[in-house]
Amino acid sequence: QVQLVESGGGLVQPGGSLRLSCAASGSIFSIDIMGWYRQAPGKQRELVATITSGSRMNYADSVKGRFTVSRDRDNAKVTVDLRMNSLKPEDTAVYYCYAYRGLPYGNVYWGQGTQVAVSS
Questions:
Q1: Is the bond into 104 cis (omega within 30 degrees of 0)?
Q2: What does the H/E/C string look like for 36-96?
Q3: Which residues face 11 on adjacent strands?
Q4: Looking at residue 74, what is its pLDDT?
Q5: pLDDT (tens digit, 9 = 90+) per residue, 19-53?
Q6: Is residue 35 within 8 Å of residue 51, measured between CB atoms?
Q7: pLDDT tens digit sequence for 82-95
Q8: Residues 9-21: pLDDT tens digits?
Q9: Which DSSP state fits 104?
Q10: How is residue 112 annotated by DSSP?
């Protein structure tokens, strides 16, 4: 099992910056992909950015050049951060941390979600 604990988020003005952080604990040795998804009111959950254990990154087109995903690990946990710059009102959503345990497990885990609001 993997436990995900998120931090960060909040209210920011357009053009501002925020950082989200997610710490994974438990069976961290088997975590392959970590990252962030988001869900705006009335919309489906969508990918924001992911990073593999080999540091291969993937970004949604809407955040490329503005958001940066990074990953770190120690003996007890794996952390994934999302640095968000030049925020726009359309970035407003609940952001969810995501973790995927590679084969043979194939499990997906989600954080509890953290609100990001971009408004003047």
A1: yes
A2: EEEECCCCCCEEEEEECCCCCEEECCCCCCCEEEEEEECCCCEEEEEEECCCCHHHCEEEE
A3: 117
A4: 85
A5: 999 999 998 888 999 999 999 999 999 999 999 99
A6: yes
A7: 999 999 999 999 99
A8: 999 999 999 999 9
A9: T
A10: -
Give the largest CA-CA distance in the chain: 47
Indicate whether 62 pLDDT > 90: yes
Q: Give me the residue label for tokens 């345990």.
A: 101
Which run of H or E residues covers position 20? strand 18-26
What contacts 99, CB < 8 A, 6 or more positions away? 2, 4, 24, 31, 33, 34, 78, 108, 109
Order of strands across the sheet that contains 78-84: 2-8, 18-26, 78-84, 67-73
Q: Bridge partners of 117?
A: 11
